[in-house]
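Field guide to reading this record: the first block holds the primary sequence, the second block holds the structure written as discrete tokens, and the final block holds curator observations. Each block starts with its own label. This record concerns 6-phospho-beta-glucosidase, catalogued under organism Streptococcus cuniculipharyngis.

BLOCK 1 — SEQUENCE
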Amino acid sequence: MTTYPEFPKNFLWGGATAANQCEGAYNVDGRGLANVDVVPIGKDRFPIIAGKKKMFDFEEGYFYPAKESIDFYHRYKEDIALFAEMGFKTYRMSIAWSRIFPKGDELEPNEAGLAFYEDVFKECRKHGIEPLVTITHFDCPMHLIKEYGGWRNRQLITFYERLCRTIFTRYKGLVQYWLTFNEINMILHAPFMGAGLYFEEGENVEQVKYQAAHHELVASALATKLAHEIDPNNKVGCMLAAGQYYPNTPKPDDVWESVKLDRENYFFIDVQARGEYPNYAKKQWARDGIEVVMTEEDLELLKKHTVDFISFSYYSSRVASADPEVNEQTAGNIFASIKNPYLDESEWGWQIDPLGLRITLNIIWDRYQKPMFIVENGLGAVDTPDENGDVADDYRIEYLREHIKAMNDAINQDGVELLGYTSWGCIDLVSASTGEMKKRYGFIYVDRDNDGNGTLKRSKKKSFDWYKQVIASNGSQL
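BLOCK 2 — STRUCTURE
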């Protein structure tokens, strides 16, 4: 076995999930309906996620996988025990906003929801696992969408602030690592999922998206301010869907296109990490006739309350071309990209680029000089149990091994500062992009199919013991 340099002492190894993709129990203990509940599996999923097709409630003829998901709500003790057996130092999870405030605009929280997460965090602590909590992982109470129009409405800042004050106060001493919004740049690509935005006929879509983005950015700065005031030990991070754009050719037009597309994604983090809107964004808005309403107080908040660290998801790099004739698309994490002929791809067409992770880590480090945290990375694949129920997922081990090597190089050879790594979907869960269960990421197999059939029984895959060894050796044995 090849031995690699160890990761830094106290490196936070673990795994990641999201409430809407694993909890289920969508109507239990007072939880309200959220945007993430009413997105079905099937051909209408993406038009709904993109805010182009209206679905504000459950409709006949559709299957909604988030209703039950893998029932983490009732099985969290069993699942956290399995994470502990792998040696997790941290567990990235999210809070369902509508468990705490079912409608979103109440003055008082739902105690049953608060108690549930308190129990989950205590269970983590019992096993020596540090919770890393995403405040909003695409969740927006449906009441806030129907009555206020989602994040286009400035009032959502107030409701989000109330949520943050409630959870920072209740979980003081239990949680110290927080992320404000999951993949905040998804608002541009999946606006109903990212910000509860549905667009009416004739609306200026870009104007609405960037106004909503401003509201989320102000809310994020407010959350950072509150977190530090309520508990000085709190560390607050931002989160983006990352992956560097490569120019398709050395042609300067292609290089410039890659710069522009990278900026579109880093725009949010420029604000959250540096504290002000970048000039390139202001110039773009002026050209496009976009007028984002903002106050002097907003700008002061953004400037004063930047994040402590930068977290991101990484599944693949991307390719940019200025030539409209170059258009062979590959799949990706909501983002389509031009195909890179030098890379292999997953069963879902996501291109596999471990070196791209090292490149992305270096670019983000050079850009911001703030500690980083990789909070999503993994391989979605069809896992077929054998006659004994075992899953030999060597393909997943290979994928993760190569990405962990790239992280190791970025730390030990390039000098980037990385706090931790939580592989995505450490237990099989519902896919955010497709709504499928058969697109599995986990070290733990869950007996459930795309139609919701199955016993929900948990079992360890081959990758379970492999990852256990990785953590035990602090990344030196892969």
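BLOCK 3 — OBSERVATIONS
The mean pLDDT is 96.
The two ends are 8 Å apart (CA to CA).
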